[in-house]
Write a structure and sequence with these properties.
The chain has 4 helices and 4 strands; from the N terminus they run H-H-E-E-H-E-E-H. It is elongated, with a radius of gyration of 24 Å. The protein is α+β, with helices and mostly antiparallel strands.
Length: about 160
């Protein structure tokens, strides 16, 4: 004997339609949370004696590398504020003597007789490696906060969160 059932799925379908409208905002919010964790860890790891490097670290949305199904954020440093960040991150050959002036600024002195390798003091790569194991949980936690806000319509959809 067949059993017939009638179920009204209109509310379920309407809910799914609302999800499609918030998916990009939710994904961006989750990515921002993970990126902020990496940026903050990099700030904590950046050498203190480098002046402006910590303040030059930033998180940025990469529109050209993002799509409807894929969002990309980068953590880096502003090379105008901290033009020597790459020397610390990757190491470099020192070809000139350096000295600290009375004003506290560093200056380039005479050429060295023999260039000297200055080892890397990485801060960005180790920051990513430290955050990576908990990155998924950071994003899930942010989704749990943000999704109800987006679905209720109470939160404005601010780009980049």
């Amino acid at each position: 004997m067949p059993v017939n059932a009638s179920v009204d799925l209109s509310s379920v379908l309407a809910g799914l339609d609302r999800l499609s409208g918030v998916s990009e905002s939710l994904a961006r919010s989750m990515a921002v949370a993970a990126g902020q964790a990496v940026r903050d860890e990099a700030k904590a790891r950046a050498p203190v004696d480098t002046g402006k490097l910590k303040g030059a670290l930033y998180l940025a949305y990469r529109e050209g590398r993002s799509s409807e199904s894929h969002v990309v954020y980068s953590v880096s440093w502003n090379s105008k504020k901290a033009p020597h960040g790459h020397l610390l991150e990757f190491g470099h050959w020192q070809t000139h003597a350096m000295y600290k002036g009375r004003d506290g600024e560093w200056y380039v002195g005479a050429p060295l007789a023999q260039p000297k390798w200055v080892p890397a003091r990485p801060f960005l790569r180790p920051a990513y490696e430290a955050v990576a194991p908990r990155m998924a949980q950071i994003m899930v936690n942010r989704a749990r906060e943000r999704l109800p806000e987006l679905l209720s319509g109470a939160a404005d959809d601010v780009e980049g969160d």
